[in-house]
Amino acid sequence: MRVTARTGKRVLAIAAVALTAIALSACTAKPTDSAASGGANGDIKIGFIVKTNSNPFWVFMQQKAQEEAKKQGVTLITAAGKNDGDIDGQITAIQNMITSGVKAIIVDPNDSTAIIPALQSAQKQGVATFAVDTQVDGNKAVYGTWATDNYKGGVLLGKYVKAAFGKNDAGETPQIALLDYHPGVTVGDQRRTGFLDGFGVKRTDPEVVAAQDTGGDQSQGQQAMENMLQKKPGINVVYSINEPAGRGGATAIADAGKTKAVLLGSIDGSCDGVASVKDGQFTATVMQFPAKMAEMSIDAAVKYIKDGVKPTMPSSGYIDTGTTLITDQAVNGISYKDTTWGAANCWGTK
Length: 350
What we know:
single chain; Rossmann fold; 7-stranded mixed beta sheet; 3-stranded parallel beta sheet; elongated
């Protein structure tokens, strides 16, 4: 269903870029060798662990990691948790990779604090450790991190949604619902806080009328949105942690016949997400660049293994791989790219 600025407000679904792992689950299988031998680096093994293999964001990221490993002439061993939030599966994967003889491990942690002891153990055994997408708490036990500035992405989306709401409303008060993530992951906290700051409200303000965790999952997003609409039928703005949860929320809103009354947007920037903006299902999406995260982290790991040189990190503790707002509806003062550009550049590359 196409929704335009003239038809009313859309749901705001911040899709936190969700990637899936192509690899076998760390809880159900040993890590899998997936790329490259030969050349001067042929004996180098690197582990690459993502949150889960049920989200396209992490599937794409691992594909790009595999491509970079092949380019570098190293062997990539991949693994994932059973689901988003499965920290035990990731810890098991780290232990298995150490046993298999990797010289570096790159991880997108399901829990930014609970992952630290496993990473510290890896370093004590001579394995270099790095992070992508999600910062380890305090940037401890990693030599470098490549990630989206999630707070900045949230602020960008919040500012845009507020401006779009003000442009299209008829004097209504915003009634904001939050399709949140789950506790323990900095990505969720940073994006939600950024969005609220960008919109100009606090979590405790009366404009924020409902919130529920979704784990970044589409079915949970739909159920959460159904629950919130039953309790607060006047919801007219929705923040979602990522596109899967946002799509679930959009389905619930459409089923309730409220698509024209609710703002819909996302953070993610997948090709499907850009198409949803073009089709009018989302108002906007904030694109992330997981291809950069994968390529830059593999390159840094190879250089460290070969030369012993740690990558230089800024004061934030991580390298920001960038964000770009994608929308076909401009508002004053906010920079954006349209969906034609977005389709050609989704997640950094197709």
